[in-house]
Design goal:
41% of the residues lie in helices and 12% in strands. It is of the alpha/beta class. Helix 7 runs parallel beside helix 8. It is globular and about 45 Å long.
Length: 257
């Protein structure tokens, strides 16, 4: 399985929010880099302005460019999302350990520690290349990805995207909600997860255990195999307890692989 990561993501000075906190990337990569039998780490380059402008307005792009270091990190995160999507489309399940996260970034605005919508940029790149006409987004972050919804749902260009933000408040019901939704999917060309780990039992949401994250990964694998030759990838969003985030990411990736 491919893990998309660049050492630049260790930079904790691009912003002053919990997603940019020191130790967060280290907590994940310490676990994943120790599993050389399971994961291959690959390095992305930055997304181009052309890639970013498929999801965002020119004015939004220019606002982010006003902070040079922020733009460097945000465009690299978007590039990591694109690399994960391209590898997934080619048949290699992928997880991108990137920051800043993206699912609260809309076409002309952003909030919630997000600046560019990594999910949308990666999917719209595949669509521009003629590879996909539809997608499914599983957003299991604690906070609903309004940016994903605003950019990807109800489009007028024929690109069809189904998005699930599970709402159940008990682990078994949460997994059942995801499974039921996936079971009803049809005609999907690729699966992607907005993978936020702040629903963890030791994180803000106090809900999901490592085995639940593994189950989410397995459902992604099972239903992408059923519908689209197993094309699946995931992008890091939230998750703020540095002591447990690596274990939760590893559990999800184990199921996804």
């Amino acid at each position: 399985m491919k893990i998309v990561f660049h050492e630049t993501f260790y930079d904790s000075e691009y912003a002053g929010d919990p997603a940019a906190a020191p130790g967060r990337m280290e907590g994940i990569m310490e676990v994943l880099s120790s599993r050389k039998d399971r994961y291959e780490i690959i390095r992305p380059g930055p997304a181009s302005d052309e890639d970013i402008l498929r999801a965002h307005s020119a004015s939004h792009l220019q606002r982010i460019k006003g902070n040079r270091r922020l733009y460097e990190l945000a465009s690299l995160a978007a590039g990591g999302a694109i690399l994960a999507a391209e590898r997934a489309y080619a048949g290699a399940p992928s997880f991108a350990v990137i920051r800043p996260p993206g699912h609260h970034a809309s076409a002309d605005s952003c909030w919630g520690f997000c600046f560019f919508n990594n999910i949308s940029i990666s999917l719209l790149r595949l669509r521009a290349e003629g590879k996909i006409g539809s997608a499914f987004v599983l957003d299991f972050d604690l906070h609903t990805g309004d940016g994903n919804i605003n950019i990807l749902e109800n489009r007028g260009d024929g690109f069809r995207v189904s998005i699930l933000n599970p709402m159940a408040r008990e682990p078994g019901e949460y997994i059942a909600e995801v499974e039921e939704y996936m079971r009803d999917l049809h005609n999907i060309d690729i699966f992607v997860a907005s993978a936020g780990f702040d629903q963890g039992v030791d994180d803000w949401g106090n809900l999901l255990y490592p085995e639940d994250y593994a189950a989410l990964g397995r459902l992604m694998k099972e239903h992408s195999t059923r519908l689209c030759a197993g094309r699946r990838y995931a992008l890091l969003e939230g998750g703020y307890n540095h002591d447990v985030i690596g274990r939760n990411v590893d559990a999800f990736c184990g199921g996804l692989d």
